[in-house]
Amino acid sequence: MNEEQFAELSAGYALHALSPEDLAAFEAARAEHPEWEHHVTRDAATAASLADGIAEVPSPLTLRSTLLAKIAADAAADAAPEEQPPSRPEYVEPAPTTNTIQTVERRNWTRGLLALAASLVLLVALGYGAVAINDYVNRPAAVVALSEIEAAPDAQESTGELADGGTVTAYWSESLGKAVITTSALPAVDEGETYEIWFVRADAPVSAGLFEAATGDSTTALLDGPVEPGDVIAVTVEPAGGSPTGAPTSDPIVVIPTAA
Questions:
Q1: Same domain, 159 and 252
Q2: At what angle do helices 61-79 and 98-105 cross, to 10 degrees?
Q3: Of 48, 58, 188, 239, which sits with the fewest C-beta atoms within 10 Å of its C-beta?
Q4: Pairing state of beta strands 193-201 and 204-211?
Q5: What's the start-to-end Cα distance of the chain, in Å?
Q6: Please, what is the average pLDDT of the chain?
Q7: Entry pTM
Q8: pLDDT digit string (tens) for 41-73?
Q9: For residue 85, which of 93, 74, 96 has the smallest C-alpha distance?
């Protein structure tokens, strides 16, 4: 499996949509190539940002009654094909009767009914999507910037590993002037501390913002200010509110050069 194939499976893994065979192949490649872990981190962060705050939306009662009544009618037609098909009913509320539901349960599932069931799944998904659209439009700025960077022709990325096994991956595009980091398994800082990101330019650090990360969680953060050619991206642990001196007060936990 090459890295491109692994990246494609990573998206399905983030959505829990892999078949058992694909999952086994994915896990094997993941163990063999730890340098590809940034794909998993990125996809998990994107999936989490889209899923947070989405409330379950039931389909309208009228739609449910209409579909169930249609299923019942098709079931009766399949059970007695020699009979004249019933005329199209006027579907109205209330909800279907117990007899209708029992008829559906006894149904010998044919392709036609499977198609109707697939349609119902689609309608439910569309109901979910109607709510998700608003959340998608209002995605966090870091997630939007990451998508823009990945679509840029000069997009670049690099991953730095922490001594304890956590990772920080930087994504940047000089044409866009944007940089984003994603973290995985970053240790939680002590109370009264925070993580601070820096652009290091000719040995002069420039603060690029603060972020918080809980143990084991994935975090996506947009760097403040434009990325410039030759920048080095670094992360330090600072007092809450950021470095009081405007310069790092501790050694960086990770350093990621952007120059080749």
A1: yes
A2: 60
A3: 58
A4: antiparallel
A5: 27
A6: 78
A7: 0.52
A8: 887 877 776 655 555 555 555 556 666 677 777
A9: 74
